[in-house]
Write a structure and sequence with these properties.
With about 250 residues, the protein is an alpha/beta fold. Helix content is about 25%, strand content about 20%. The longest helix has 14 residues, at about 65-80.
Amino acid sequence: MLNIIYRICDQRDGRTKIEQVTKRDCFLNFVDVFGTQNLQVVADNTRQETLDFIARFTDRVQTTRLGNSGSFMHALDLALALDDAQAVYLIEDDYLHHAHGPRYIAEGLALADYVSLYDHADKYLSRSPNPLVTDGGENTKVRLSPSTHWKYTNSTTMTFAVKVATLRADQAAFRQYCTGATPGDYFIFRKLAETGRTIISPLPGRATHCDEFTSPFFFDQTIPMRKTSEAAPLAAGASPAGQPAPV
């Protein structure tokens, strides 16, 4: 079973760093790809109109005023309340996904401890902010699953999928590096790598962070996307068209 814990806030007045994409657009895309079954939302520092929008899709919403790191820690605690055998996707509010996200996550978790559907563009820069990237790439290994190629990567953002048992065992690293205003994602995953944990992402990316480092070639493919004005909620517990309900 794939559980979803979706964190949303009204920072940047509900916009992402891609001018034409709003956080509501990202949420609608998420609903189209993943459905609303097993969805929990952490709404941190959000306005009432944002809460009203989310309520059209789910009533499993917790409101907080904790900031970025604090709201992640709240989401972490929600995840740790789940059964160890289950998987959880912890997702931030400024991501877009291609279709069949649950399938890719399931395939990725068969190959690695952590799955990021986002292929970070900073991993391909000749002068990357990531210190483990040199000459436009990172040392890696490429794998093949039934639906896509994958590569092991050295770090990811705070949007990732993981088995609850793994997250429970690794929680100390998240707690150590989520004490400031912004989580230290790079340091979290490097610390976990020291214990042998692995992170994998698909080639090409099946999701993108809506910032300056979008997944290469992501927008060359069709994206399930309704504009906010076209939003119509799925029936409670529904799955996206063409996808079976999670079991």
